[in-house]
Amino acid sequence: IRVAGELALVVVPGKAPLCLRCRNTGHIRRDCHVPRCAVCHRYGHREEQCVKTYASVAQKATRGLDVNDLLMKRKSRKLRKEQRKRVARTRSVQDRSPEGATRPRPVILRLPLLINWSTQQRIRLQVQAL
Fold first, then answer.
1. Does Zinc show up as a keyword for this record (predicted)?
2. Alpha-carbon distance 122 to 130, whole Å?
3. What is the separation of C-alpha 38 from the centre of its chain, rounded to a whole number of angstroms?
4. Using CA atoms, how far apart are residues 95 and 119, in angstroms rounded to an integer?
5. Which of 35, 57, 85, 117 could pair with 121 as two cysteines, CB 3.0-4.6 Å apart?
6. Average pLDDT estimate for 47-72
7. What pTM did the predictor assign?
């Protein structure tokens, strides 16, 4: 029966309770004694009786790899790449004097490159700085 959009189990006097794990009557899931496999984590059989499927074999091959670790490595590589681009942009912004020595521009001119602003905003800031 549904109560407030959620399924709820009803205890009816005179009717045996139904186990949602093994689908047998006479007990509920909390009291169910069906064995659980430590390999596939399913109920109904033990480790010795576990059937190998294509999915279970493939899962063993990737068991040492954690998906979160792979995603974090990818994110960190992407962040490092973005940081390198920012550094390259700030280096290219520096003015060069006739002697060849580098002279950094004022911070106000480097700021638009560090922050992702539109072209119009960059032009306004550069005009104001001059």
1. yes
2. 13
3. 27
4. 20
5. 117
6. 70
7. 0.35
